[in-house]
Design brief:
alpha/beta; Rossmann fold; three-stranded mixed β-sheet; 21 helices; binds D-mannonic acid; D-mannonate oxidoreductase; oxidoreductase; oxidoreductase activity, acting on the CH-OH group of donors, NAD or NADP as acceptor; Mannitol_DH_N; Mannitol_DH_C
């Protein structure tokens, strides 16, 4: 039996509670916070919260909450043990313990990676969906289930105790993520107690942030390889690419935050240009390649872009359709950013499955692809590649691949999407364009877009994804 990775848990108080303790945060935000504490000190240890299952907690507890973050470079793997976690709570087991942790005065930041669907909002409008089952639950009882519910109830407890609010730091790939989350929290707070909503609006802070690091799901083979390399068994390592970027609007309650600037985090006045660049250039092409690549039989993004047809397709998307709609952030060269993305995608050490990225398309498409399409069409600029990507999403969501094999579609709207598929592409397109929670009104009412999407879908069905992308 190999020795197990083990650290004596650190007893110092936590300064951060993180909701949604998935691999991405453990490979990105947690590493930055750990390094900021090493650089400049401060009690910024993190209490992680799993909103769904106990799996991560159960694996990390015997390790004293330590885990390995493994950098997957083209030249080899570099492990780093991360010891910034102080505890892990499982919300469904004990929601009150989560609220108590969030209400502790030492906690000054609550960060979140709960995925797009975790905000219980309408992706096309960014507003709270009051009919979401978890929100209905959270309005009826003080022990919440949803991330917005935890934020509102914990802020309510802080207000009652006369404490300042915590800064809410959204780390999900939503457009204007801080502002959207602020709106969702205020919508929910107002339904519970309008005075609470006013207090949060006046005293709270919800900085927008752009986060970036490619973190494929950890596999059993990764665990064994790491053990062979280090001689220690870690049941919950995370795997990540060398690149990382975090751009945060410098708006924290009382200015309280770790010294993130010391470790390369960009603290700026306006995140929007960075966020548009990243969501549209990275996530937009990631999703496009995920649907088309999956349909063409490619398991990973690296395999997809190793096919010259798809490498060319991605380059055309950047050059002709995405970059022309963007304002570059200060000091960024978008053509160089695109070239760097192409190299990141091609990294063969990153086995990022097309299936993983294809998940939750109904929540991802608006900010990744549909905004660029709408702006391109308004400016009279053709967007055939992104239109084909939307058609590929529709085909994927039908639940059948090009050989009629079943696809395991993961999406909160999965059954609804599958039911929209028809033999006639025009009818399929008409059905999908009826999804007001996905498509903005300008595209739903754009007959030219419907016609082009229909032609793209017909071509995709007739010729297959690879030939359709090889225009
Ligand atoms: C990916 C992202 O799974 C996905 O949808 O596009 O997780 C992507 O890898 C990250 O945003 C990179 O920063």
């Amino acid at each position: 039996m190999p020795a197990r990775l083990y650290r004596v848990p650190v007893a110092a108080p936590a300064g951060v509670v993180h909701l949604g303790l998935g691999a991405f945060f453990r490979a990105h935000g947690a590493v930055f916070v750990a390094e900021a504490m090493q650089a400049s000190g401060g009690d910024w240890g993190i209490i992680g919260v799993s909103l769904q299952s106990p799996g991560t907690r159960d694996k990390l507890r015997p390790q004293g909450w330590a885990y390995t973050a493994v950098e997957l470079g083209p030249q080899g793997e570099t492990p780093q043990v991360v010891t910034v976690l102080r505890d892990v709570l499982v919300a469904p087991e004990d929601p009150q313990a989560v609220l108590d942790a969030m209400a502790a005065p030492a906690v000054r930041i609550v960060s979140l990676t709960v995925t797009e669907k975790g905000y219980c909002h309408e992706p096309s409008t960014g507003r709270l969906n009051p009919d979401h089952p978890d929100i209905v639950h959270d309005l009826a009882t003080p022990l919440p289930k949803s991330a917005p519910g935890f934020l509102v109830r914990a802020l309510q407890a802080r207000r009652a105790a006369g404490a300042v609010p915590f800064t809410v730091l959204c780390c999900d790939n939503l457009p204007e993520n801080g502002r959207v989350l602020r709106g969702v929290v205020l919508d929910l707070a107002r339904l519970i107690d309008p005075a609470l909503a006013d207090w949060i609006a006046a005293e709270g802070a919800f900085p927008c942030a752009m986060v970036d690091r490619i973190v494929p799901a950890t596999t059993a083979a990764d665990l064994d390889r790491l053990e062979a390399a280090t001689g220690l068994r870690d049941e919950a390592p995370v795997m990540h690419e060398p690149f990382r970027q975090w751009v945060i609007e410098d708006d924290f309650v009382g200015g309280a935050r770790p010294d993130l600037a010391a470790v390369g985090v960009q603290l700026v006045a306006d995140v929007t240009p960075y966020e548009h660049m990243k969501l549209r250039m990275l996530n937009g092409t990631h999703s496009s390649l995920a649907y088309l690549g999956y349909l063409a039989g490619h398991e990973t993004i690296a395999a997809t872009v190793a096919d010259p047809v798809f490498a060319r397709f991605a380059r055309r998307l950047w050059r002709d359709e995405i970059i022309p709609a963007l304002t570059p952030p200060p000091g960024e060269d978008l053509a160089a950013y695109a070239a760097a993305l192409a190299a990141r995608y091609a990294n063969p050490a990153i086995r990022h499955r097309t299936w993983q990225i294809a998940m939750d398309g109904s929540q991802k498409l608006p900010q990744r692809i549909l905004g660029t399409i709408a702006e391109g069409r308004a400016a009279g600029r053709p967007v055939p590649g992104l239109t084909l990507a939307v058609a590929a999403w529709m085909r994927y969501a039908s639940g059948r691949d090009e050989a009629s094999r079943a696809i395991e579609v993961k999406d909160p709207l999965a059954p609804q999407l599958a039911a929209l598929w028809r033999d006639d592409p025009a009818e399929t397109v008409a059905g999908f364009l009826g999804l007001s929670q996905v498509f903005p009104a300008v595209l739903r009412e754009d007959a030219g877009f419907a016609a082009e999407l229909t032609a793209a879908l017909a071509r995709l069905v007739r010729e297959g994804a690879r030939a359709a992308a090889d225009a």
